Amino acid sequence: MELEFLGTGAGSPARYRNVTSIALKLLDERNAVWLFDVGEGTQQQILRTTIRPRKVEKIFITHLHGDHIFGLPGFLSSRSFQGGDQPLTIYGPKGIRDYVQTSLRVSDTRLTYTLKFVELTENTKVFEDDTFRVDCQTLDHRIASFGYRVVEKDHTGELLVAKLQAAGVKPGPEYGKIKAGQDVTLADGTVVPSSDFIGPAQKGRIVTILGDTRRTANAYTLAADADVLVHESTFGQADGRIAHNYYHSTSTQAAEVAKKAHVKQLLLTHISARYVGKAAHELQSEARQVFPHTRVMKDFDQIPIPLQKN
Amino acid sequence: MELEFLGTGAGSPARYRNVTSIALKLLDERNAVWLFDVGEGTQQQILRTTIRPRKVEKIFITHLHGDHIFGLPGFLSSRSFQGGDQPLTIYGPKGIRDYVQTSLRVSDTRLTYTLKFVELTENTKVFEDDTFRVDCQTLDHRIASFGYRVVEKDHTGELLVAKLQAAGVKPGPEYGKIKAGQDVTLADGTVVPSSDFIGPAQKGRIVTILGDTRRTANAYTLAADADVLVHESTFGQADGRIAHNYYHSTSTQAAEVAKKAHVKQLLLTHISARYVGKAAHELQSEARQVFPHTRVMKDFDQIPIPLQKN
Ligand SMILES: [Zn+2]
Ligand SMILES: [Zn+2]
Prior knowledge:
The structure is a homodimer.
Chain A: E1 2-7, E2 21-26, H1 27-30, E3 32-38, H2 42-46, E4 56-60, H3 66-69, H4 72-81, E5 88-93, H5 96-106, E6 115-120, E7 124-128, E8 132-138, E9 146-152, H6 161-166, H7 173-179, E10 184-185, E11 191-192, E12 206-210, H8 217-223, E13 228-232, H9 240-245, H10 251-260, E14 266-269, H11 278-290, E15 294-296, E16 302-304
Parallel strand pairs in A: 3-4, 4-5, 5-6, 12-13, 13-14, 14-15
Antiparallel strand pairs in A: 1-2, 1-16, 2-3, 7-8, 8-9, 9-12, 10-11
The complex binds zinc ion (2 copies).
């Protein structure tokens, strides 16, 4: 599990920061990549990475501002052009379907794969299967904006083979039952309780990715105990009033969320083009005063998210 | 007057060729830039040039395929974001208005300038003022596709001041009248015929830019005697049948148009990603067999279009 930042700018593309897109690479976990926002030029950024468009299984859109969605029709077309044939689902605020379908219709684009839409209007469970669950909550932006909380389910503990053998349980179908959580009765009547022969569960990881937002209570809920919180930082500490007026956050406000939510790591993105070089570094320093484990992201930064040791 | 190629690829962006966009820089002529097609990432390409979005006065769309239009909403937003306040007109096939307006509405983008649309359905005069005239004609592509013929009006000849003075006409309001083409009668009754005192007119330039197309008759009409013909060359000579099936042209077909239309220079663009390095050079060699003044364009190539000596 790894995050790769495809665009870390705000508003308009700049020479060294493209507009927003974040890839959550789940190659080991499900041989898939999830994208969060697809600003214009995301497919060009992807050309400079090892990400293969056909592996993109889900796209989560935080909000419909152009710097977060204008790369979507092009990405979808190229995924098709490159022979992608697996279904793809787009989750996002109401309107995303209209935008994408109009773009594909007007341009006479016929996709080689099934495209599904899930439009969001309120706090809800977005997706769940055996290995992941994603929830969204509303944030506070000029238009509807969502934060996503991606929770990996706990990995079941390993089968304690040595211990089983010591207890006289020979390899065979019983091992599968025990691994699946069933108690087993041996030929001699001995009951082998499954729970005694399975190691501790490995805690799943939590990744929280927020859309553009002012300081808001739902951010804390979404970020609670996350391994990684990705938070916008359009402005610096000194521009709190501007941030408020434009429905954005400062570096320090992001750090306060990280601190109160007890996250392990804060990654700042959506950096205004006014902060270049030293000034971007300054955003990081400000945030670290509040929450030390903070980094300002650059385009193409890759952040591994390791499983925590039990 | 100069052409700058912002994207020279076909279909999907590639590492070294972005999708289609061409700038016709008319800085000396009207302090403006015209764009022909705006594929995704055009605004990012513009960041690497000296072109200022606010100077873009007109955008001509050849056809609605995604690789020619998906950069439009982002470009329009950024032009606004950067304080552009002059009106902008988009000319293109029916559907362009729906696409742009849906994109701007869904993304809640409010432009700081007036955006006008002129939708085209048939061969017509697209635009005319004192210095330029633009006509379009339909081409032969899978969807409606247009070629544009940009004709600069002839520059009036200079006032022959020395000759006027020799003829005894003193500087004064008469000079303005003669320059404007009016004959003047002096106090002594002498008639001064305007045409005797104005140098030869300077022929205006002709630039023809075609959208994606199969070989088709209108291409010749549009390109007749042009200073520059910009023609797609999606395929090489050997792939004539594929080109036909996909409604595209080969390098050699483009060269045949250039030759029969007596253009001065042929610029090939919309090069498939399969032709890299030597293979792209091969397209140029093939075309030169038919029409020597041919060049295959690369992204950021700049081609000056000088006035011809009378
Ligand atoms: Zn934004
Ligand atoms: Zn094309």
